[in-house]
Amino acid sequence: MRRAVRELRNWWRDGVVNVVIFARVVPDPLRAGLMRFCGYSIGRSRLSAGGYVGGRGLRIGNGSFVARNVYLDATAEIEVSDRVQIGPFCRLVTSTHEIGPTDQRAGAALAAPIVVEDGVWLGAAVTVLPGVTIGKGAIIAAGAVVTSDCRSDGLYGGVPARWIREFSVHD
Hints:
alpha/beta, 7-stranded mixed β-sheet, 5-stranded parallel β-sheet, about 20% helix
């Protein structure tokens, strides 16, 4: 019975968040406050329409911007720090599967957190996979697929994302 109640509550929360709060008719300045009302830890940041949040493990700091149509799979924790810019159509995915036997390759479900540190810029259509930390001030080029940690103040691009160059503090 408790499981059924929990599933109903999750279904209701996901419906409110993904159908109502991320609807284009809701003004952007209101969206973060509505997310806080639903129990998410969202600082003074701007969330654009058309997004999707699955799961409860989402925290966004202050001064961050999440563009349109961003997919946030918060099965495990997603921590977006302060002044982070997330471009349109980005995907932060915390869940995956073990490799199973021939008859079902997608084995048991796994989840690992994603951490995006202060000042990071994720270009359009970036995908960040489970267990990744992106260091402070890093830039991830549009279309990159981030499969491993990125150090601070670095530029990364490609599939999979690779280090391209380092920025100085004043760049």
